[in-house]
């Protein structure tokens, strides 16, 4: 089959690789019909190179149809499924409590990490990912989400990651009717988080330096702001001088305006892999401009919810401010499956209230993935969300 493989920092290529095979009775194989490039894939492309191996198949937002089903998979050939990025058993102590990203069966204990993830580096198990023509789905008796056949892939595809990630971020922010919410970053997760806030009745402010992303969010009732030094003060003025009830950081470790963190990322990625891994495990620094701005902006007694990925172990945090402002921090990889019952009616609603049909800016064949990665990272050609079509 053809699959997108990691070859080095800022280098991916589509290669012919062996077809996946069933390895356990509860495995399934799907023919991938759509698979998206995620903002967190860019961390593999740029920052997490020390944890990658040449030839790794990446990607963790796939859907398609079952072509082989293990006898214990609870699936049948022909089933149309979305595959969440997390690999979880569904029955351990953690999974029973809805913490599927902490699954005790698939935890990657070598790196003291949570549940294994599709296509996401040694840190999360080096499991072959979904930017490929076919995908082996481990723990297929729990992980896949069966969907209907009437609606297009775009309606369902984002249940694999970014839509439940955004939903969890807003739920963790604990906002609803009449509350105020700010969102830093209008990439795909930030777009959905802002729309979900509006859907739940909150007044939503969003901060984003890229004009096309601001324009997309504004179409969905979001009040948008460019990223400048006065933006926090402007939003405070709109919220009674206090700041919003909650702030979502949908940017993560590669935020703009963090020169020291950017230098640290570049330096670590140039080290030999073993040394780079050790440096990131013990002394890694993130680019924290979005997080620190979120802490500054949120009102006293408010909540900062992190959906953007962070990976540093030595990040400086403003503990005096956090303590003095009585700020609650909530964060973590998304526990996809527990949110699906709430999200499925919304994605199948004929009115498309979360705008799943208004997110994808580029749909390209798998062979164009290397160019799409570069375009997505550099934010050229109005790129906000790319979907790859492996069968085209």
Can you offer a commentary on this structure?
This protein folds into two domains: 215 residues, Alpha-Beta Complex (Quinone Oxidoreductase, Chain A, domain 1); 167 residues, NAD(P)-binding Rossmann-like Domain (Rossmann fold), CATH 3.40.50. 29% of the residues lie in helices and 19% in strands. It has 13 helices and 15 strands. Helix 4 crosses helix 5 and helix 4 packs across helix 12. Pfam families: ADH_N (PF08240), ADH_zinc_N (PF00107). InterPro entries: ADH-like_C (IPR013149), ADH-like_N (IPR013154), ADH_Zn_CS (IPR002328), GroES-like_sf (IPR011032), NAD(P)-bd_dom_sf (IPR036291). Belongs to the zinc-containing alcohol dehydrogenase family. Keywords: Metal-binding, Oxidoreductase, Zinc.
CATH-derived architecture of the largest domain: Alpha-Beta Complex
Just give the CATH class of the largest domain. Answer: Alpha Beta
- CATH evolutionary superfamily of the largest domain: Medium-chain alcohol dehydrogenases, catalytic domain
Distance linking N and C termini: 13 Å
SS-derived structural category:
alpha/beta
Counting DSSP H or I runs of 4 or more residues, the number of helices is 13
Silhouette: globular
Helix content: 25-40%
Beta strands, count: 15
Quickly count the domains.
2
What is the residue-mean pLDDT, rounded to a whole number? 92
What kind of sheet is the major sheet?
Answer: 7 strands, mixed
SSE arrangement, N to C: EEEHEEHEEHHEHEHEHEHHHEHEHEHE
CATH fold assignment of the largest domain: Quinone Oxidoreductase, Chain A, domain 1
Q: Low-confidence spans: pLDDT under 50, at least 5 residues? A: 260-265
Q: Quote the beta fraction.
A: 15-25%
Radius of gyration from the alpha-carbon trace, in angstroms: 20 Å
